[in-house]
Amino acid sequence: xxxxxxxxxxxxxxxxxxxxxxxxxxxxxxxxxxxxxxxxxxxxxxxxxxxxxxxxxxxxxxxxxxxxxxxxxxxxxxxxxxxxxxxxxxxxxxxxxxxxxxxxxxxxxxxxx
Length: 113
What we know:
mainly alpha; 50% helix; 0% strand; elongated
């Protein structure tokens, strides 16, 4: 090492260490959702297509039942109420957006990408 790269320390003193991330309190840690519901495109498309094939009252009932199943599953995973609420609202919005896309847009021709 050159003199420029050395850290000045007292002789015999323990080397200085940066605080580790695990010393932070729990409230500052990032909350990680491994598989966000709204990003699961095949599931969103499948549920929206299933809703489009049903009468509106039955479709709403089926959607509410699916959302309740997802709420229960997320709570079992230990997510907070606010995290569950955000995930389920985003999931419902994605399903409803896909449902509108199915209903309003004509099907793509077979050769279209």
